[in-house]
Structures are given as C-alpha cells and as structure tokens.
C-alpha cells in the first residue's frame, strides 16, 4: 500500500507493501484522483522462477538482464528473460555476513562505468567488479546517519540521497531529504536538500515520496513530491535546475483502513498525496510516476517544451514499486515460490510517450 512505502521513505525503515493491491475507485472532485480515460494500459506482471529474491530494494539494468538487490537474502540476483516468457533468477554476487564482500543491511545498488556499488544502512559502500568480484569497502562520511541511503550515478559521479535530521544550534528538529554527490577522488559534498517535516509533527508531512532520487540518461532527478517541481542535475559540478510542471494537480485519497496516525499534522494522513514518486525523461517530455489513489500509480507525460495537460500512459499498483532507473521502471511482488514482476524498459516508456 501507498502508506507502507511512504513510511519507509520518511522514516528510513525498510517496509514493503503486500502484493496484490487493486485500483481503487476514483473521486471526480477537484484535487481528487480523477477517473482515467479508457484504453490506458495496465502494468503486466509475469512470473519469476528459479532462486528468486525475497524483497527487492533496488535494481540496475545490464543489457537484457535486471540486477536486483535483495534486502532479505542480502545479495544481488540476476534476472534474465526466460524462454517462453517470464524471468529466471539466479544469485549474482554478494552474500550475507560481516566479512569482506558480505552484506549486513543492504539498502541501494548502483552501476558505475567500471563497477557496481552497494550502500549499506549506516553508510558503508562496497564495490564489486563487473564480474561480481569484490573489490573493497569504504565508509561513506556525510555527517548523517544514513539509515536508508539511496544511490544513483551520473557518469563516474556517485549520487547518494538519504533522510537526515537537522536543526538550529546543533539540534535535530527537522527531517530533510538530502542529496550528496561524490566525484572520483573527491570527498562527498551536499548538493541539495528538501525539508520534509519537523520531528514534533507540527509542520510538513512524513508522507513524502519514498525515493527522492532517480536517474535518467545524463541527468539525475531529486525531489520529495511536496510540490510539482523536481531538481534536475545534469553536471556534477553544477547545482541543478529546478523544473516545475504547474499542470500537475494535487490529488487526494482516503486514508488506508487501519492507519494509525501519530500526534501532530505531519503524522496525519495528508490532505493531498505527493505530486510524484519518481520521474523519467523522454524526448517528448518528462514522465512522472504519480500516486493516483492510495494503492495505485499512474505514469503521466508532461509534454515539452510546449507543456499542456498531462497524458496518462500506464496504470500500475503502488505495491511492489521498486523505482525507476535510466534503464526503466520495476515492480516486484515476492511469492511463496519465486515471485512476479513488471519491468517497463526505458524504450517502452519512450514508445508510450511517443504514441500519445
């Protein structure tokens, strides 16, 4: 469900929604999730067989394969297209443990030009050669505890996003989403931050986008969906450009059944859902992955440069949404044996955008 993934993003806790969420009925009033036009395709889930992962935390695309980071099995699996349809899974590299090349609390996976890198909760980075051979581990020093770091790459530059508390006079009264950049041979530096909520619950909302960082071809996207703007970073040395899409309208949805709200407005179910939870660039414009109801997403194209009304391209459940990379967007639902996944390659996203 929507709430599970948002709590995971805001509090840094690794929760994953149960599979099988269905598209809820939409309200038609302004600010609510309007009914989608007929003919909008749905994400297609197919079977994953073999030694499948238990909980997919992150992924990268390598050729025809999708490499996924399993937070439960604490290793990386390679998912390859199977004959006759679906995907087959097999362990690729990494294993549980506390020794060299072993993983304890893996949180994120990224692909540099010559290596894979895995971030652990707490901030350790482990590097592996493209053949899966362990290289080395180094601590990630940001001044933040990094309970649930995210990773992306911009060429040889590593991007890290995390939820970090801050405050006046050394205090910690506000939770922020923070973007860090590390160029080869240089220390980590802060590039941007987005305040989310005060820890006393009197300002903001903890129901921000679960992932503040996404990557595209030659650029990064950073934002928490609190407004219709995203920071686009195209050069590691630059500060990025704030790109806004005023045609994206806020949506409302009823609170999920059984939700236990905390004290303070920031911990209550919000009046409006995040404007987006991820973004993908295409030649026709930016495709925003947006909450449509509390348990469903819709991919919407905002045409550029002319702008115009957003065009819905595809509907998918929020449950199982892993995220979007430059190689595409991924959903994964574990099952007792194997799992089911929906992979939307970048080429398919461009085709959907071009056909509208």
Task: Explain how this protein is built.
With 356 residues, the protein is mostly beta strands. It has 2 helices and 26 strands. The protein has helices at residues 2-11, 346-354, and strands spanning 46-50, 56-62, 65-70, 75-81, 87-93, 95-96, 102-103, 106-112, 115-120, 124-129, 134-139, 150-154, 157-166, 174-182, 189-198, 213-216, 219-222, 229-233, 241-244, 278-282, 285-293, 296-303, 311-317, 321-325, 328-334, 339-345. Strand 22 (296-303) and strand 23 form a beta hairpin. The protein is globular, with a radius of gyration of 19 Å. 45% of the residues are buried.
Beta content = 35-45%
Q: Structural class of the secondary elements?
A: mainly beta
Beta-strand segment tally: 26
Average pLDDT over all residues:
86
Give the CA-based shape. globular
- Strand neighbour order, sheet with most strands: 2-3-4-5-1-26-25-24
Fraction of residues in helix = under 10%
Radius of gyration: 19 Å
| Weakly predicted, low-confidence segments | 1-32
């Amino acid at each position: 469900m929507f709430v599970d993934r948002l709590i995971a993003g805001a509090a840094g806790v690794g929760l994953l929604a149960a599979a099988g969420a269905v598209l809820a009925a939409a309200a038609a009033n302004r600010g609510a999730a309007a009914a989608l036009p007929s003919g909008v395709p749905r994400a297609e889930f197919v079977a994953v067989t073999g030694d499948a992962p238990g909980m997919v935390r992150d992924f990268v695309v390598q050729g025809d394969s999708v490499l996924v980071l399993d937070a439960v099995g604490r290793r990386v699996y390679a998912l390859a297209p199977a004959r006759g349809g679906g995907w087959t899974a097999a362990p690729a590299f990494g294993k549980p443990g506390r020794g060299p090349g072993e993983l304890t609390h893996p949180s994120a996976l990224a692909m540099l030009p010559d290596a894979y890198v895995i971030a652990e909760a707490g901030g350790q980075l482990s590097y592996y050669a493209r053949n899966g051979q362990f290289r080395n581990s180094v601590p990630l020093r940001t001044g933040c505890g990094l309970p649930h770091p995210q990773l992306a790459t911009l060429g040889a530059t590593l991007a890290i996003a995390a939820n970090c508390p801050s405050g006046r006079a050394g205090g910690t009264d506000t939770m922020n989403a923070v973007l860090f950049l590390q160029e080869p041979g240089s220390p980590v530096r802060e590039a941007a931050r987005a305040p989310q909520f005060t820890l006393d619950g009197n300002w903001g909302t903890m129901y921000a986008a679960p992932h503040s960082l996404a990557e595209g071809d030659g650029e990064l996207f950073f934002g928490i969906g609190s407004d219709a703007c995203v920071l686009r970073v195209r050069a590691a040395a630059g500060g990025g450009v704030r790109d806004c899409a005023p045609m994206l309208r806020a949506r409302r949805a009823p609170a999920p059944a059984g939700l236990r709200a905390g004290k303070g407005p920031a911990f209550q179910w919000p009046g409006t859902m995040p404007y987006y939870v991820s973004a993908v660039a295409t030649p026709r414009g930016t495709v925003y992955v947006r909450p449509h109801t509390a348990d469903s997403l819709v991919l919407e194209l905002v045409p550029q440069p002319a702008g115009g009304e957003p065009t819905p391209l595809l509907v998918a459940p929020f449950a199982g949404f892993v995220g979007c990379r430059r190689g595409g967007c991924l959903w994964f639902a574990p099952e007792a044996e194997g799992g089911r996944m929906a992979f939307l390659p970048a080429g398919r996203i461009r085709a959907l955008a071009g056909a509208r």
